[in-house]
Q: What sequence folds into this?
């Protein structure tokens, strides 16, 4: 129960990594608000997660500044505070650059990077008030090593790392830490969409020899948002089975 008394908002908590992160934070004692673009999915996820602790759901497109503000406000109204923000919501629109449409570029940047900015900008206010805060951005190893066909995704995820470091410096004196987690190849709907041949090729490059589980990313997030990680800020923690080491 490292997070008893804490209020958390997890974006993209309707499935996959976000769902597992919300589950873990709730198990550790936090009250958790999960969001996804569709209200009914967020409510369904909250219902599934209610077995692990206090979890509520809200519809919110993180790429819309008004919806981002409203989600933060809802967290404060329902739980009395917002101590922890996990910017997990993300999409991909993979294409080689020559075929990448402007809308593929814009959509990925809007959700994966600008959405994190909208959420963090809104969330910082209650954190400053509480004089305690934790922001964790879910980046990707793709930000560190690149992947052909994912220039938009890699740019957004690398942007998150720079955003994390700047914000970490800006907020350090206020009791707020800002870190990034860079998962490798984790089992989720996003990665199940990769053709099997490509998936097996990817898997063969992982030193630990297997795909990661969402719970393994959630464990890293739970550590970074706990008091135990109070002296860690501006860091990017890879959770990738060794994939990106050099
Ligand atoms: P999924 O596609 O399974 O889940 C994505 C989540 O984000 C869903 O809850 C989705 O909900 C939500 N979401 C998407 N767009 C928005 C939006 N505009 N506003 C609010 N919520 C949104 O992905 P994963 O669980 O695999 O990935 C989660 C994060 O981890 C992403 O940022 C991804 O880039 C990152 N990541 C994943 C890896 C992997 O191997 N799986 C590896 C490295 C990083 P809804 O559709 O209901 O809006």
A:
């Amino acid at each position: 129960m490292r997070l008893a008394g804490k209020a958390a908002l997890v974006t993209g908590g309707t499935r996959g990594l976000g769902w597992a992160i919300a589950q873990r934070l709730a198990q550790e004692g936090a009250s958790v608000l999960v969001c996804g673009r569709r209200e009914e999915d967020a409510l369904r996820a909250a219902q599934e997660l209610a077995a692990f602790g206090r979890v509520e759901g809200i519809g919110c497109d993180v790429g819309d500044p008004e919806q981002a503000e409203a989600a933060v406000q809802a967290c404060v109204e329902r739980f009395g505070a917002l101590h922890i923000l996990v910017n997990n919501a993300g999409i991909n629109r993979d294409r080689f650059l020559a075929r990448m449409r402007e809308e593929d570029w814009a959509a990925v940047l809007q959700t994966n990077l600008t959405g994190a900015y909208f959420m963090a900008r809104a969330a910082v206010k209650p954190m400053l008030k509480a004089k305690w805060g934790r922001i964790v951005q879910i980046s990707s190893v793709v930000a560190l090593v690149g992947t052909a066909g994912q220039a938009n995704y890699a740019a957004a995820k690398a942007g998150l790392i720079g955003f994390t470091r700047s914000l970490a410096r800006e907020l350090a004196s206020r009791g707020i830490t800002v870190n990034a987690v860079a998962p490798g190849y984790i089992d989720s709907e996003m990665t199940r969409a990769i053709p099997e041949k490509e998936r097996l090729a990817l898997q063969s490059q992982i030193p630990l020899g297997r795909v990661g589980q969402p719970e393994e990313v959630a464990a890293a997030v739970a550590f970074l948002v706990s008091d135990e990680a109070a002296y860690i800020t501006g860091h990017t923690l890879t959770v990738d089975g060794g994939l990106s080491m050099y």
